[in-house]
Amino acid sequence: MSAMNLPDDFTRQMYALLGENEYKAFMEALDENAPVSVRLNKWKAGTCSGSRRVAWCDHAYYLGERPSFTFDPLFHAGCYYVQEASSMFVGYVIRQLVSRPSLVLDLCAAPGGKTTDVLDALPEGSFLVSNEVIKSRARVLSENVTKWGAANVAVTNSSPEDFGGSGIMFDVVIVDAPCSGEGMFRKDAASVAEWSPASADYCSGRQKKIIADVWDCLKPGGLLIYSTCTYNIKENEDVADWMAEEFGAEPVEISVGPDWNIGGNLKPGSAANVYRFMPHRTKGEGFTLSAVRKTGEPVSGGSVRVPGKGRKRDSGSRAVPGMARDWCVAPERLDFFVSGNSVYAIGREHAPLAAALREKFNVLQQGICVGEQKGRDLIPAQSLALSRLIDRNAFACAELDYDDAVRYLRKEGLVLDDGVPGGFVLVTFEGKPLGFVKHLGTRANNLYPAEWKIKSGFVPSEYVRVCR
Ligand code: SAM
Predict the structure, then answer these.
(1) Nearest C-alpha to atom 11 of ligand 1 is from which residue?
(2) How far apart are CA 238 and CA 290, in angstroms?
(3) What is the pLDDT of residue 312?
(4) Confidence of residue 458 (pLDDT cuts 50, 70, 90)
(5) What pLDDT is recorded for position 274?
(6) Which residue of 149, 178, 314, 342 has the smallest Cβ count within 10 Å?
(7) Strands (E) located in 161-240
(8) What's the rounded Cα separation, in Å, for the pair 198 and 186?
(9) Cα–Cα distances in Å, from 16 out to 8, 10, 226, 235, 262?
(10) Do 448 and 385 meet the contact criterion of CB atoms below 8 Å apart?
């Protein structure tokens, strides 16, 4: 993208916001290539080929160039997430401000960059409700959450109003709001084409409505993290100021490294704490964040349990096949339940919350789907293969070379080595689970989800390694 192609109204806005010198540096930065960065899944990957770390995320790295992630089996195994660096600030904020087990809502979560970061940042015992209002995007979110492998999460496809009126109260609400996307101009030409001077006004109104819709489900003393990938004041400082006026929200300060070059509040007279990432100052795309606290006495204890005795156990009361327990590590610490044909496992302490979520929201997944019941059989689920709950000793394993791993991810048939027993086999690449096959002796039926398969016909000439 050339800065020359930007709308005049946008360049005028930025000149007014930044002044002459900064404006020039900003425009030059827009003519550079967007940096490529990945965040490692600390449960699955140890090291990264990138040598320079993202300053605010100690397990994220810049890569020298953009490899074909589609053809990296470890990408599909959930070993890392491709995320632009500025957005990783949300995980940093969680690490700094959330120190006890918490119930967290990520309201606008698809495709899942911040959700997967937050899952790693939260203290042990926490639970994340990762929501996306648009159905097709919620499915992508669900795929990315499944690949990440955490069990302390539910993916929902509900509207902000549903949460506000639910009676379920959250310690932290993250609103990574739909915005005019100015910060994505360098990466995404479509966001330039969609931008107009009126878009900031429209988005600002929608952002306030989203926050107003969920404000009631934030506990007194709770934290709301608000972020956009845009620069203008209407969608950032104005929204933060509005939260203070409308709800008495208190600005929260975040301590940051002085050499990170993060910008601050650009609105004269505004008391909001605003953290603004700009491409000429920080190595990442445009991103702006402010955090506020709801006034009132914090609710005591850090429990994520929901109030309400004798909660109805919907399909959870149906018989769970014993095999599901055998396939998980520490099954005594898990609650198993059946929903439709699927058998799920979730941490015991989160089971009442999970049941409450099923009553109130459109839940796409909760905890880990262990298997699908087909007649009297239980077929191990893809999410079990990728999860931290799987007991690998319960399955025969077959290590695939690179070509077979790509074949598996294209959902093609495989022929496994002699000696691999019949039945369900966990296939791995470099020791990381990719999924299951059903081994029939002479061939193996590929159980990789059809909707996830690599569709591109391209054949890479070599494997470009991102992590191990
Ligand atoms: N947090 C995501 C991540 O890190 O991958 C990115 C979220 S994106 C900036 C904003 C999301 O808000 C989109 O997925 C969009 O579908 C959703 N959205 C759009 N309109 C909305 C509305 N009225 N209420 C809630 N969410 C909305």
Answers:
(1) 108
(2) 11
(3) 46
(4) confident
(5) 98
(6) 314
(7) 170-176, 218-228
(8) 20
(9) 12, 10, 24, 16, 19
(10) no
Helix (H, G, I), strand (E, B) or coil at 377: strand
Which two three-digit tokens encode residue 128? 């994340």
Q: What is the residue with the minimal CA distance to atom 10 of ligand 1?
A: 178
| CB-based pocket (< 6 A), ligand 1 | 87, 108-114, 132-134, 137, 160, 176, 178, 206, 210
Distance CA 105, CA 126 (A): 11
pLDDT at 307 over 70: no
pTM over 0.90: yes
User: Is 229 tagged catalytic?
Assistant: yes
Distance (angstroms) between ligand 1 centre and the Cα of 331 equals 35
Q: Locate 179 and state its tokens.
A: 């915005």
**What DSSP element (H or E) covers 115?**
helix 113-121
Residue burial 134-154, b: 16+ Cβ < 10 Å; e: rest: eeebbbebbbbbbbbbbbbbb
CA pair distance 168, 307, nearest whole angstrom? 9
Which of 108, 180, 235, 362 most suits a substitution to test ligand 1, by most atoms within 8 Å of the C-beta? 108
For atom 8 of ligand 1, the residue with the nearest CA is 178
Position 72 scores a pLDDT of 97
pLDDT category, 298, cuts 50, 70, 90? confident
Closest ligand 1 atom, residue 90 Cα: 4
Calculate how far, in angstroms, residue 226's C-alpha sits from the geometric centre of ligand 1.
12
**Do the Cβ atoms of 447 and 438 come closer than 8 Å?**
yes
Residue-wise pLDDT tens digits, 366-406: 999 999 999 999 999 999 999 999 999 999 999 999 999 99
**Rounded CA gap, 171 and 169, in Å?**
7
Which residue among the candidates 229, 328, 369, 467 is catalytic per the annotation? 229
Mutate to test the pocket of ligand 1, among 88, 131, 133 (most ligand atoms within 8 A of CB): 133
* Atom 9, ligand 1: residue with shortest CA distance: 178
- For tokens 């002459």, the residue is 20
Bridge partners of 18, per DSSP, are none
Beta strand 368-374 with 377-380 is: antiparallel
Q: What residue owns the CA closest to ligand 1's atom 15?
A: 178
* Whole-angstrom distance, CA of residue 46 vs CA of residue 40: 8
How much is the average pLDDT of 136-143? 98
